[in-house]
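Example is below:
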Amino acid sequence: MQRGSDRLSRHRDDEMKHELQGLLRSGHPTRSEEWNDPEPTADDDPQVWGGPVAPGSVGASLETVRLELARLLGRSSFPATPVELVRILRRKNAPDALTEAVQALPRKERYAHVQELARALTRTEGTP
């Protein structure tokens, strides 16, 4: 019997289900080689699963703000003024809260890299 658009035979489907049963039932990797298991997150990894990070929001540390800015801006954006950075962030569809925070920085400042920008944003938004 033909199964339509299925690439595999019925026997191969059953074989693949049997191979995955251990993983599905146990809830953890069942490989004997440790190098083949996915790496768990480290304790000091920034939490990015909560959505876009904006300075001044809950959980917006220097590291998480820097990570978000680096992801959006990259190395080629620097050195730049806040006006230039806002233009780049808008072009890359950055979150509004992040764009507004960069726009609130002094217009005459020039930032050499992401670290300087992240420090300025967390210092401006956080406690002095």
The first helix runs from residue 10 to 26. The chain has five helices and no strands. The mean pLDDT is 79. The helical segments are 10-26, 62-73, 82-91, 96-103, 114-125.
